[in-house]
Amino acid sequence: MRRWGRRDKIAIYALMALVMIFFLGPIFWFILLAFRHPSEAYTLPPQLFFEPYLGNFGDTFVDPGNNAPQLLSSVIVSSGATLLSLPFALAAAYALSRFAVRGKEFIMNWYISLLIAPPIVFVIPYFILMSRIGWAGTYQAMIVTLQTLAIPFSVWLLKSFMDEVPLDLEEAAWVDGAGRFAAFIRIIIPLALPGIIVTSMFTFVFSWNNVIFPLALSKQSTTTLPVGTISFFASTGVYWGHIAATAVVAMLPPMIIFLLLGRYVVRGLTFGAVKG
Amino acid sequence: MGLAYRYTFQRRLPYLLLAPSVIVLLALISYPLAFALRNSFWFWNLQMGPAPLYYSGLDNYRMVFQVTPFAVALKNTLLLGFLGTFAQFWFGMGIALLLHTHLRGMGLMRAALIMPTTLAPVVAGFLFRYLLEPKGGLLPWLLAGIGFPVPPQGFLGNANTALFSIGLVDTWQWTPFFAIVLYAGLLSINEEIKEAAQVDGATQWRMFWSITLPLLRPIAAFLVMIRFMQLFNSFDLVFVLTSGGPGTASRTLSFNLYREGLVNYNIGTTAAMTWIVVIIVSVIINLYLFFIYRKREW
Hints:
The complex is a heterodimer.
Chain A: H1 6-34, H2 55-62, H3 68-98, H4 104-115, H5 120-132, H6 139-145, H7 147-162, H8 167-175, H9 180-191, H10 193-209, H11 212-217, H12 225-230, E1 233-234, E2 237-238, H13 240-261, H14 265-269
Antiparallel strand pairs in A: 1-2
Helix pairs in contact in A: 1-13, 2-13, 3-6, 3-7, 3-10, 4-7, 7-10, 8-9, 9-10, 10-13
Chain B: H1 3-39, E1 42-43, E2 54-55, H2 59-66, H3 70-99, H4 106-113, H5 115-118, H6 121-131, H7 138-145, H8 162-187, H9 191-199, H10 204-232, H11 236-241, H12 253-263, H13 267-291
Antiparallel strand pairs in B: 1-2
């Protein structure tokens, strides 16, 4: 390991301080906005210390609280999409991790090309389809269509975790007379459980942060919280206090989940390709 | 259960396991693609009726270029993709090298640094829309304070700076992603190789270009592909920050599709544009997989 001189250290810390201010400053400033009285949103020079005002949260989540149902919608859509993707992804990941599948590389590339294709291309036909089958504005419309992202992502990430479960353990179970399925349930699932939980957390966050699908497929009573923030850009004016309050609530679950994920963040963000 | 049966079952099992996800995904993507292909040859505005009105041949494909600003959107999208990926990669690499000094506190800073990436892109958009407000925004106020020329309509309202501002917000959000993943890559490089090079008299600069960078290549190739495509698909940020404006100055392909499909309700033209975009995206992804990414093992 290299040893750094005193002057090097000062330079490195100074650069790092600039980096942290640049990346965390805007978030900090926006959180403050949520606690400012609407009349002070544009006060310049900026006030770092002020009387905190909770009315923005009150207006949006308590009384009249128009955004409270959106919080519930976000939870329903994100959990629904995550739970629905799991059985499909578990089976596919197990197959790709444990068997010599013909065209494995092609299949993996196919999954990832879905993941990086422009979602808007799919969303507009879904918008028509959903009104034809009577699913317009329903939760299931969003949950099912989000699978175009949730399944490919989960397959990739779960496969990377299953690759790490030693084959010996599974083979030992077969020798003891357990079938493939029994071994899968008794060996793979428990040993890959941290991976399954990590994958679910990521799928939840990605679904939570998704806007294109609910924007096109929800109605007012089923729309999610990130979409709810957009509605404040009314023709009557921009309600920054309300936007900030709802946005702060919308950003909390992903932030908390990422903090909990700790060392798995790198792996999840790269779909399992970089172990981290 | 007979042995022969077990053998065939074992051989087919992986395909049986893959089938559900492949079938669901095929169904989910083939409907939109077939829908778009069929309707790209029909005139259909949703405000005029719930079904296609008449067969119009290749009119929709002509409309994509004549009525919607497709060429501008394509140019903006590619510009955003290339410049954004380039900036994020090198900025992220710089931060990864700073983190890799392993000075005290770097672990904590690395953990905090990821916060922008956790935000929904819409939320990131709001953060900067507020910061960039022409009257009362913090950034124009600070920049004007140090004598930087701030356009009177604000950075988002000016045709020369709107697209650049979107790229900057995306760079703010995703540079930490590059930094943290490239840092993980740096950790995986065997220090002995570098020590050997140092003994042979290699400079820090030379070691970075000849050892570190080539060893990071597989990770870098993967990151660049993902990020380029996510930038190529930019919609959320455009929607919140500029709505593609002023005029068409910051319109991207995804936003162009949204405008034509879900605002103007020209389903026929949108369908034609969908296929043009699908072909462009397939070409990009396949070129990438073929030239840069093919040596990877799963």
